[in-house]
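Can anyone check this?
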Amino acid sequence: MNTISIKSIVAAIVLFGAARAHDGDSALARTSYPAEMAAAEASMRLADHSEARAWPDAPAPAQRGLEWRLFDAGFDDALARFEVESPVHTLAVSPDGARIALGRADGVVEVRDTQRFDLVVRKSLHQGGVTQLRWDRAGARLVSASHDRRVVVARAADLGIDCEFTQHGYPVGGADFAPIVTATVAPSESSPALVASCSYERPAGGVVGTLQLWNGADATLVRTLHGGRKPLVELAFSPDGRFVAAASWDFCAFVWPVEGGEPRVFAVPDEGVYRAVDGVAWSPDGSLLAVASKDMSARVFDVASGALLHTMRGHRDAVAKLAFSPDGDSIATASGDGTLALYSVRDGRRTAVLRGHSDGVLSVTYATDGTQLWSSSKDRSVRRWDARASVYDEAPLTASRATYVVRWSPIGDCLASASYDGRVTIWSAVTRAKLASWQAHPADKSCHALAYSPDGRTLYSGSYDGTVAIWDSVLGLERGRLQHPSGVYWLAVSGDGALLAVASDKQVLVWDLAKREQIACFTGHSAAVLSVAFSPDATRCVSCARDGKALVFEARSGALVATFAGGAANVAEAVFTSRGDEVIVGGRDGSVARFDVASGRRLEDLLQSRHGFDHLALSPDGRRLVLASESLVFVDAQHGGIVGRFRGHKDRPYHVAFDVRGERLASCSTDRSIVIYDPRPLRDRLASRARREQQRSMVREAIEQRLSEEVGLEEVTNTVWSDPAISGELRTAWIEELTLRAARSGR
């Protein structure tokens, strides 16, 4: 029994005991939730999609937090979907891209509109399941093969039958129209010239794969081709119509000249696993042949030489079908493990995994223009996907050097990051583009402290050079510097924007930002201060240091209020809860506890992990604490315990931050990466990206118009900031475009 199965059994026992508790926030429900999320995380990490897909529906709604939404969103990457009454074994998009034909397990053929999925026509054409369905080159007819031993040529408009081929003695695995008229059959304006269909026969002593070529006008047999000693289960004509390939359970694909002759054999190597071939596909130029195998792999052969070029692995179940993209650069595979995968034809590398189906995927095809994919599954759904690999397993944002802090702008979708080389960089979290980057501090002094003002207009950066630099967050213009006697390690801005707390060596310096004056110096620590944070009402600060203490002090006077022992030599970070009466303190030894500010009493131990962490973030609603540890670790901030993990970086995450609404996370690492965790389904993220790009295009024109009227960039920015008519997404679009424009102009 493998590890994941053991995890599943243990979690299932917990689920059974917790079933009655799933109607609320009971202790038993809270106990089962971490087990359910751990099982989901382990299944996803081990790439067992069918196992992982079962877990998101298990937890009680009352228990579900951001970590649940992130997992759940990751299980359906489809742009759109619709349900059918019976599983669709095969599907095909019309040459003009406007219609999609579905061949169902119950023998029904449907034609639907590809935009709204409206039913155009439906008809029961077979008594058994439809195994392959293809359009003719004009988009006027469909040919369907079935387990009922029949092949039908039907009019696409009404699915009226033009002719039937009934000369197969056993179930028919596939059928296809020749892409061009050949010399074998006389041309006809009213019908396709040639159809191929494949099956098998049972002569005395065994099985023989058979492929029939016949006239699509009257179903008269033209030629019979034989190959192998197993059934032929799918076929495809080469793009020029000179050859026809068929998938064989004889562990290979056969390729025959349409004019007749012995087939060439493209064999799947014997690797000790059952390797029957279920699907074949030609590259658009006819130079490559791809095969889908039950050994959980797909392979690409060079047709001219017969050489095996690539073996594409990664699925956990048989690969049922595959398809080349219209440009020939990618291959999409459909697997019994419930996923699709995209591979690079150039090097065979897997570029994306597409999740969404809850059961084995039966068929896959590209839209005519190559922008989208279609798939069908045993789960009785048909899904549409974006065909670009980059939208699925998106690479993290990459900073110039090791990144120590990332902050969300309070007013929109911009992120700011600070790096070891002293640079500050602004990113769009929606389009994932770098908007601006500038040298905020000397390259040899690092930049590892960063904070926005509450209105988002000002950005503060700190460095070992002993300064806090004050920046216009849009224009990148320096508005001043605050000097400190020692290097700046960390900083925080109060919620009202009035105060700035700076951790420098063993002390915390508090500044009045309006006056640019230092008003307090807290010296209660005996070792270097690692972090500082304000209370929600901006009256107090909590600081953490290498002396193993977290201290609360009055922000304007520096008077000590409370002392908390963190339980470790280094106390990493502390945050106030939303009411300000409690503090959550975390040590670099992995301990996290909640304390009462008034009494200094330790209220509850939330976590004792064997993995330390560098920074933590508390969600705005106070429900989740996220630690930048060996991974991003989600902790129940009210009751304790780990409820989720995410591994987005090659190295350890160093810092983590919630956006202002608590709906998204961002983390950064010393490996230079910045990862954005957005729980919205992919279709919503792509729609948001398209909307933002459209808004920015409109804004770009408006900015150029204003500049042409000799209005300065700073004046435009001030207008955008002060105009109450500009709000929400539109304001963010303005800010992003102004940030980019300022960076390009060298401001």
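Reply from J.R.: I decoded it. The first helix runs from residue 3 to 18.
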